[in-house]
Amino acid sequence: MSKRVKISFSTVNDGKYTVISNVDISQSSSRIKTAMKGAVREHEKRQAISQKEASKLVLNF
What we know:
This protein is mostly helical. 70% of the residues lie in helices and 0% in strands.
């Protein structure tokens, strides 16, 4: 029979990671948001067109 052992990630990963500061995270988030702005806008446009076309198909039946 196997015995269950409770594992704490804080002890398993002790000393194996570095803490990222909140400033670095916010800077990365803003860079990613800026870089993805065009792609997100294009996706939203395509989705709106797709929804319009789908509604036309539903109305035609």
